[in-house]
Amino acid sequence: MRFGVSVFPGTWSDVDCYSVINDVLGYEVDYVWHKETDIENMTA
């Protein structure tokens, strides 16, 4: 399963979410810019 973490300008919680999904849960994860429209490679 591959997760996407939304990134919004001026926020920092995306880093925490990334760490939990990747380091704690062990899933693949990518940052996704909030204006991105192509997220077909994400499953969650």
Structural notes for this entry:
This protein is α+β, with helices and mostly antiparallel strands and 44 residues long. It has one domain. Helices cover 27% and strands 27% of the residues. It has 1 helix and 2 strands. It has a two-stranded parallel sheet with strand order 1-2. Helix 1 links the parallel strand 1 and strand 2. The longest helix is centred in the middle third of the chain and has 12 residues. The radius of gyration is 10 Å and the shape is flat. The N and C termini lie close together (7 Å).
Short structural description:
The protein has one helix at residues 13-24; strands at residues 2-7, 28-33.
> What does the main sheet amount to?
2 strands, parallel
Name the poorly predicted regions.
none
Strand content: 25-35%
Spatial separation of the terminal alpha carbons: 7 Å
The mean pLDDT is 94
Question: What oligomerization state is this entry in?
Answer: single chain
Give the number of domains.
1
**Order of H and E elements:** EHE
- Tally of strands: 2
State the secondary-structure class.
alpha+beta
Overall geometric form: flat
Sheet with the most strands: spatial strand order: 1-2
Rounded to an integer, what's the Rg over CA atoms?
Answer: 10 Å
